[in-house]
């Protein structure tokens, strides 16, 4: 047996080193935190064929049960480690080394967890002992979190390998859809349209057609038809630039007399000056609302204007001024329609937080901005598909007014595919999303707490 030690900044990187060096059959003997990261000891039996480790497609009928047992082991580890030893996964006869290593680690964690309260009871009034106990508990939390990451890696790799063997065409499509940035749930829905026995090119067109049907877009150019629109979204998402592009397009087609710009952003330095400068360039009316009660009278005074565009402040969800701003927009309904502006360069969590923050404004559509700078469009597409929110406009540059257009589903999807084809595949992320889609996502995403 070949035993090696690996050092990395975190457990995920350490597992990648082990896999690259020893292969998928490597058994983790121990792991601990050291200065600057983690240390992992792993071993592999060079005489053991790979096919014996995880079994072939015909000889691994008990693999699904083993995966379920392993997931239950994670739950046991979170709730006391009492029954974890009895529920260790048995994935083929060749996994004895891995199973023994997991059992030893769990046993040591269990002993450490039960011994900490005994030490605390011996000297309950000792601050130094209390600090030592807290450090021990923190260390155990880290150990359990590292073990959960290890299990997620192993289960995800095993599940993905089994999926590739059973459905190679669907696995290929999953890889491409995940590379586009689409969520695991959406990928799973799209693969349901794959027809067994049909060529891959035919099925890929079916998958993209299904995505196009799920991606809703506004069928008409809302702003060009006139009305009052409020552009809301996080700071830096491109609200003011979007207003400038749409206002310029309207002025070029209908003239400046019927256009007015309103800003409620009195929180950022120079925000109102941006709108004023734009108004001077376009020769249109500009109003600054610095009091929530002034919005309704301001809009009443602009009732003769065919188009009124409202620029709002991008505020954090915990900012008390956000509630005032959303309340101000609620008071002027239904005369004001809201568009959520999302920068496609934002992380998925940022986009979801923006929707949950501003979703109560009864949105009529979204604007995708910074598309030209994005390395993935799947996160934004997944969000609007999940909530049934139509995409109204796509902005892909800084030029005013050229770099904005009405959204088209097939155009967005084609662009998402083209962007993903230019980037290297992230297999680690892809396998992780696949593992979560098979269930047990809550087990893997929750952090351990005592």
TrEMBL record:
Location of region: Disordered: 108-134
GO CC aspect terms: plasma membrane
Chain intervals with Polar residues compositional bias: 125-134
InterPro entries: AAA+_ATPase, FlhF, FlhF__GTPase_dom, P-loop_NTPase, SRP54_GTPase_dom
Domain of life per record: Bacteria
Chain ranges of the SRP54-type proteins GTP-binding domain: 226-418
Listed CDD domains: FlhF
Family matches, as SMART domains: AAA, SRP54
Pfam families, alphabetized: SRP54
A GO molecular-function annotation: GTPase activity
UniProt-listed GO biological process terms: bacterial-type flagellum organization; protein transport; SRP-dependent cotranslational protein targeting to membrane
Every AAA+ ATPase domain range: 225-377
Compartments reported by the entry: Cell membrane
Keywords on record: Bacterial flagellum biogenesis, Bacterial flagellum protein export, Cell membrane, Cell projection, Cilium, Flagellum, GTP-binding, Membrane, Nucleotide-binding, Protein transport, Transport
Membrane topology: Peripheral membrane protein
Annotated NCBIfam families: FlhF
Family membership noted in the UniProt record: Belongs to the GTP-binding SRP family.
Functional description taken from the UniProt entry: Necessary for flagellar biosynthesis. May be involved in translocation of the flagellum.
Protein name as annotated: Flagellar biosynthesis protein FlhF
Protein's organism: Aestuariirhabdus litorea
Encoding gene per record: flhF
């Amino acid at each position: 047996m070949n035993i090696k030690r690996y050092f990395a900044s975190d457990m995920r990187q350490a597992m990648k080193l082990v896999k690259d060096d020893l292969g998928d059959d490597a058994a983790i003997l121990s792991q601990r935190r050291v200065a600057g990261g983690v240390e992992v000891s792993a071993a592999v039996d060079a005489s053991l064929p790979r096919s014996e480790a995880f079994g072939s497609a015909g000889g691994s009928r008990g693999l699904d049960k083993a995966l379920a047992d392993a997931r239950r082991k994670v739950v046991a580890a979170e709730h006391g480690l009492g029954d974890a030893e009895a529920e260790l996964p048995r994935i083929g006869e060749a996994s004895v080394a891995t199973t023994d290593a997991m059992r030893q680690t769990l046993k040591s964690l269990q002993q450490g967890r039960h011994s900490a309260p005994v030490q605390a009871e011996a000297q309950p009034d000792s601050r130094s002992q209390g600090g030592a106990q807290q450090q021990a508990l923190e260390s155990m939390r880290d150990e359990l979190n590292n073990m959960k990451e290890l299990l997620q890696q192993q289960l995800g790799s095993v599940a993905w390998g089994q999926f590739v063997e059973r459905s190679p065409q669907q696995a290929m499509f999953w890889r491409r859809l995940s590379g586009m940035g689409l969520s695991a749930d959406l990928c799973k829905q799209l693969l349901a349209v794959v027809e067994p026995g049909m060529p891959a090119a035919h099925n890929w067109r079916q998958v993209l057609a299904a995505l196009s049907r799920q991606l809703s877009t506004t069928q008409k150019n809302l702003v060009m038809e006139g009305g009052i629109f409020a552009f809301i979204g996080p700071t830096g998402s491109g609200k003011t630039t979007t207003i400038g592009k749409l206002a310029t397009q309207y002025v070029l087609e209908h003239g400046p007399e019927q256009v007015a710009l309103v800003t409620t952003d009195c929180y950022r330095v120079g925000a109102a000056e941006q709108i004023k400068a734009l108004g001077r360039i376009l020769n249109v009316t500009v109003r600054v609302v610095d009091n929530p009660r002034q919005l309704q009278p301001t809009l009443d005074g602009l009732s003769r204007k065919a188009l009124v565009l409202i620029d709002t402040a991008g505020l954090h969800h915990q900012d008390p001024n956000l509630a005032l701003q959303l309340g101000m927009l609620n008071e002027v309904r239904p005369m004001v329609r809201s568009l959520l502006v999302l920068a496609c360069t934002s992380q998925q969590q940022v986009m979801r937080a923006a929707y949950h923050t501003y979703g109560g404004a009864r949105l009529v559509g979204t604007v995708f901005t910074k598309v030209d700078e994005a390395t993935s469009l799947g996160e934004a597409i997944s969000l609007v598909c999940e909530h049934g929110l139509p995409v109204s406009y796509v902005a892909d540059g800084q030029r005013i007014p050229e770099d904005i257009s009405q959204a088209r589903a097939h155009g967005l999807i084609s662009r998402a595919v083209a962007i993903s084809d230019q980037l290297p595949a992230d297999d680690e992320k892809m396998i992780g999303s696949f593992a979560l889609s098979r269930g047990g996502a809550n087990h893997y995403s929750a952090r351990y707490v005592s």
